[in-house]
Amino acid sequence: MLKIHNPATGALIAEVPEASAELVAERTRAARAAQPAWAALPFEARLQVMQRFRVALAAEVESLAVTLTAEVGKPIRQSRNEINGLLSRIDFFLLQAQDTLAPQQVFDEGGTREVISFDPLGVIVNISAWNYPYFVGGNVFVPALLAGNAVLYKPSEFATLTGLHIARLLHESGVPLDVFVPLVGRGEVGAALLAQDIDGVFFTGSHATGAKIAQTVGARFIKLQLELGGKDPTYVAEDADPKIAAESLADGAMYNAGQSCCSVERIYVHESIHDAFVEHFVETVRGFKMGDPGSEETYIGAITRAPQLDVLDAQVADAKAKGATLQVGGARTAGPGNWFQPTVFTGVDHTMELMREESFGPVIGIQKVSGDAEALKLMNDTRYGLTAGVFTKDEARARALLAKVNAGSVYWNCCDRVSPRLPWSGYGDSGVGLTLSTMGIQTFTRPRAWHLRQP
Length: 455
Ligand code: NAD
Description:
The chain contains 14 helices and 20 strands. By secondary structure, the protein is α/β, with parallel strands linked by helices. Strand 3 and strand 4 form a beta hairpin. The model has no long low-confidence stretch (mean pLDDT 98). The site of nicotinamide-adenine-dinucleotide has 32 residues, from helix 7 and helix 8.
């Protein structure tokens, strides 16, 4: 039995049976048998099913947000934002999928035509994280189903109830039970899925688990996409408005209690505006209300996974021991549940864990830099590469810098932003492959090259 606790209170809120290895194997065989009929439907039939899913999801935003908040500790407004955000992503997929998946004739000369068609991969596995279960799941299962795949879906063990609601809504909307198959449980269930007869693995989660999955399935030559962690930097140049930059970056660092893959995790500020920036940043952070995630006023909720508190404690202790200055926060909050104060350090450097390893919590380091060259060097001093940003009035300067940063997404005067119209991908240890954009629809297909010559 999987015991589900509310991370804000520690209370047990549900117990759900975990999928056994036998069930995983049986459900995979059923998905394999069901997928061809799903793929053989006219595209419009799958489109209509997913349109119904969108309507069903929209009708339940409020109750789904309450469930999400109860199981991950996310403030209720942010839970609502996430579900509404998935509705926008679904709109993008519904609008784009037909043209994107239609065969493309790319050559027609002298009786020879060349055409690309997009066949579904077949049966794919979607192993999901808990921090944005609607986003990271939806990025996969919505386009994958539209493209004609069957999906074996393992929600995170920390977002199981949400995962089961997603499955219920898809099934009620007309996705056959064997075409979208939820399999609930911890890492063992994910590992059991990898051992099945599958055509692709789409994973969102930590680098450590992603590396294990790559080792397990690498030699099978099936499609493998890994969306992993980050240590996302932003540089604030001397011509930026320190107040505007500080307010934006404080939100980028602390939203969802810093538990976002694209949270701002490192900040470099030009020495000439460093002090003014820090003053505004700390003031903004002090204004964030932490507490009951069910309250409309709350901005910082609970830490979803208790072990992350140890990571945060260790980063704080290491930064202090190496001479960083604690501006605010720095400790757990007493009481039941998992709580950590929003924490800001200055006087940090790259010898500190805080500036090297993903914090995945409301903890941020702000480092003084002398100019663009030093900022660029520090931004690229990481094994990760998910997002990076520059705050400056000068677009040309920002674009020149951002073109040299190793990151899948780059931001000028903004941060912590994901668009369904743009590909979402990482460099280095932030992963391989992409979701979102029209490329994030085609990624669930096998392109077939047709060489057609008239006799
Ligand atoms: P995690 O790696 O602990 O777990 C992710 C999923 O993998 C869970 O469903 C888990 O049950 C499963 N799993 C665990 N061991 C497994 C195994 N051996 N085989 C197969 N599956 C296994 O990560 P998490 O704590 O859920 O998520 C947080 C991490 O996800 C952070 O590092 C964050 O940056 C990253 N993330 C990345 C993105 C992105 O788009 N790049 C988005 C959201 C989260």
